[in-house]
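User: Can you write out an input/output pair for a complex, sequences first and structure second?

Assistant: Here is one pair. Inputs:
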Amino acid sequence: DIQMTQSPSSLSASVGDRVTITCRASQRISKWLAWYQQKPGKAPRVLIYEASSLESGVPSRFSGSGSGTEFTLTISGLQPDDFATYYCQQFNSYPYTFGQGTKLEI
Amino acid sequence: EVQLVQSGAELKKPGESLRISCQTSGYNFTRHWVAWVRQTPGKGLEWMGIFYPGDSDSRFSPSFRGRVTISVDKSITTAYLHWNSLTSSDSAIYYCARQARNVGPDYFDFWGQGTLVTVSS
């Protein structure tokens, strides 16, 4: 299985801040990575797919970059609605695997 | 509008069987893979397996192969996740999710609301 490692596990920030979350794959996955946001009691919601493509309806303050084994999710200008847990997921090969999550807190 | 609506919470005893459902609507059910994902506080999100209703192809994570099965009823565009014999370690929230495109590997663009399964004696 491909192991996905996110850092940091938790992050404190303020409204208006720019934050970056990193995801590292244990082997090369090209661009086959997605980022999801999850709020308590809710299902995950896709933000970014293919490492850098913004899903329809997702605010442009979210952006993704990277390829191979190193990926980042950046949120520019944090909004109150952005405080949530973020997960990366590789879909290069089965079994698709998720990172352990990054909790973004105020 | 694409929707995935899951069945309600379940409380079961160890050794019992269970089937939970994911009723879909708003898209061509036979043209998108449907996956099941487990979430626990300790292990986070775990991809369990995926099923293609168009030809009944499926893939499973080694961690779940043989422990669960996935089936569908195309007539009611519903996917199912089955256990023959539950254990306490199966207690979790289970999500179904639709793969965005039907060609090659892909991300999940729509998710069900989740089904809480509690296994306790």
